[in-house]
Specification:
It is a single chain. With 189 residues, the protein is of the alpha+beta class. The termini are far apart. It is built from 3 helices and 8 strands; from the N terminus they run E-E-E-E-H-E-E-E-E-H-H. It has 2 domains: 59 residues, no CATH class; 74 residues, HSP40/DNAj peptide-binding domain. A hairpin with a 2-residue loop joins strand 3 and strand 4.
């Protein structure tokens, strides 16, 4: 096609100062939109009548692609959200009730007695709203066991007494190694 008329069969002798003969001009415009709940990165939204204007005067549509920022506490996977909940080891052993954050404020988590590290607790309908259907995902709280890093002498004594009360040896494998050594020694005598 002709580089001057681009296949139109005509050229413009006096070019418009706004469009410089292109037939359109770029103009910035603020548009207020309503973002639906539950949008995720990569989702697109069409805003009718706010796109480029064609030569015949009709306006096209504006397409927006969303990029959702990561949250410092929650990890999103579809409509489910994950949170790592720090729990002190005594809270896990005793099965205490604790408050954890959710998307709508705090909710109560009842720990089971003897809760383990990385154990998960699932809360239905506490996740992100499905952008297409309104159904909510789940909040999945994963326990992160917190152990003390420094102990006072009193705390150390209390823990040692507790350990003794359970019959736990400080060197549990010593007797196993001693009996294995005696058996192996017997093979060679």
């Amino acid at each position: 096609t002709c580089p001057q008329c681009h296949g139109q069969g005509q050229t413009i002798k006096e070019k418009c100062p706004n469009c410089k003969g292109k037939g359109y001009h770029i103009k910035e415009q603020e548009v207020t939109i309503s973002v639906p709940a539950g949008v995720d990165s990569g989702n697109r939204l069409r805003v009718k009548g706010h796109g480029n204007e064609a030569k015949n005067g009709t306006r096209g549509d504006l397409y927006l692609t969303f990029i959702v920022e990561d949250d410092e506490h929650f990890i999103r996977n579809g409509n489910d959200i994950y949170i790592e909940v720090p729990v002190f080891f005594t809270q896990a052993i005793l099965g205490e009730k604790i408050q954890i954050p959710s998307l709508n404020g705090e909710i109560e988590l009842q720990l089971k007695k003897g809760t383990h590290d990385k154990e998960q607790f699932i809360f239905e309908n506490e996740g992100v709203v499905d952008v297409h259907g309104g159904r909510k995902g789940r909040l999945i709280a994963q326990i992160k066991m917190v152990m003390p890093t420094k102990l006072s002498e009193e705390q150390k004594e209390i823990l040692e007494k507790l350990q003794e009360s359970f019959g736990i040896e400080s060197t549990p494998h010593k007797t196993i190694f001693e009996s294995a050594y005696e058996r192996i020694k017997g093979w060679f005598t």
